[in-house]
Amino acid sequence: MFRKLISRLLGRGAGSTKGEETLKTPSDTSQADIETYYIEEIAASPYIKKSGRNTVLNDFLQKTKLSAGELLSLQEKKALGLNTRFKITRCQYDALTVEGVNLSSKRVLEAVCLRATFNYNRHRDIARMKGIGITQYSPMSCGDSRDCEWCASMNGKVLAIDVDFVQLIKENCTCDYCRCVVQAKLTF
Questions:
Q1: pLDDT tens track for 47-59
Q2: What is the rounded CA–CA span in Å between residue 182 and residue 123?
């Protein structure tokens, strides 16, 4: 059993010839790509205007760069009631709500991007585990002050591979973005 598992992890099935890969990772058609995760998180953010969603998506996809645009002048920031020490571009201001601008464009955009990226990676990792026959996994929190109570309580718990951890995060986590990772639980 152990030999078979290692063979599958390394991409070679029992009895396969060297270089022949039998392990199939999730295909692009069976799993949404990162862009879908970005779109979902951007739409869910109360700090991004509906009219600014495509601009933010293009920034995340590195088609444009929001932070490279023309900075608002000191007078413009004063007239808008913004903290004059914040560096904010016109594109960022146009894409974010007033609350988002006041929180800091960097903080808002970073949290949305990281939420989407972590969720994508968790789904991909769980799909890979499932693909090689692993039946359980365990979340691992970072264990620092940025973890919410729920994330800390999930550390080390064993979950069935069919449990959607990303959905649990959406329902329970209160962090800016959940930094938990998932580990395969192997039983011998």
A1: 999 999 999 999 9
A2: 10
